[in-house]
């Protein structure tokens, strides 16, 4: 039995620019193909920590979700990292987990990111596992 091979990727972030942050991560992760079972990306790896959630929140199934799903399939490995997501007018720091040929699942904060006048705070409370949220048709059905 072989052990779990984990790759941790870190890079300087381009503030509030998801596309610019995904490109070098795709390149770096590509070098791990065949050498890793799990790629772990930083928290809010597409934007950095920000309170400008209204302009940065992505819908599930948006560009980063699609990117993670394709990258997992390309690497034949699981890949995980969190992004700011928007859901019915609420914003979450949501951990996405994409597995090759299995789609994507998400873990989100139990409470949305509060938006208050003055000091804004990000509260990390108990987290709950959501149901798999997207499974592209070209990937075989399965459960994470």
Q: How would you explain this protein's 3D organization?
A:
- With about 140 residues, this protein is an alpha/beta fold.
- It has a single domain, classed as Nitrilase/N-carbamoyl-D-aminoacid amidohydrolase, CATH 3.60.110.10.
- Helix content is about 20%, strand content about 25%.
- It contains 3 helices and 6 strands; from the N terminus they run βαβααββββ.
- A 6-stranded mixed β-sheet has the order 1-2-3-4-5-6.
- Strand 3 and strand 4 form a beta hairpin.
- Helix 1 runs parallel beside helix 3.
- The longest helix has 13 residues.
- It is globular, with a radius of gyration of 15 Å.
- The two termini are about 20 Å apart.
Spatial strand sequence of the major β-sheet: 1-2-3-4-5-6
Averaged pLDDT:
78
What is the name of the CATH topology? Nitrilase/N-carbamoyl-D-aminoacid amidohydrolase
The helix content is 10-25%
Q: What is the architecture at the second tier of CATH?
A: 4-Layer Sandwich
What separation lies between the terminal Cα atoms?
21 Å
SS class: alpha/beta
**N to C succession of SSEs:** EHEHHEEEE
- How would you sum up the major sheet? 6 strands, mixed
Low-pLDDT stretches are: 115-144
* Overall morphology: globular
Q: Quote the beta fraction.
A: 25-35%
The CATH homologous superfamily is named Carbon-nitrogen hydrolase
């Amino acid at each position: 039995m072989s052990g779990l091979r984990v790759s941790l990727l870190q890079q300087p972030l381009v503030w509030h620019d998801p596309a610019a942050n995904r490109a070098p991560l795709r390149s770096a992760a590509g070098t791990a193909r065949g050498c890793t079972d799990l790629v772990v990306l930083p928290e809010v790896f597409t934007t950095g920590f920000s309170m400008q959630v209204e302009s940065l929140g992505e819908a599930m199934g948006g560009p980063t979700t699609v990117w993670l799903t394709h990258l997992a399939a390309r690497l034949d490995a699981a890949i995980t990292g969190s992004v700011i997501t928007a859901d019915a007018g609420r914003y979450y720091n949501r951990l996405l987990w994409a597995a090759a040929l299995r789609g994507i699942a998400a873990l989100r904060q139990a409470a949305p990111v509060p938006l208050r006048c003055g000091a804004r705070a990000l509260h990390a409370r108990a987290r709950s596992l959501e149901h798999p949220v997207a499974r592209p048709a070209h990937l075989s059905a399965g459960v994470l």
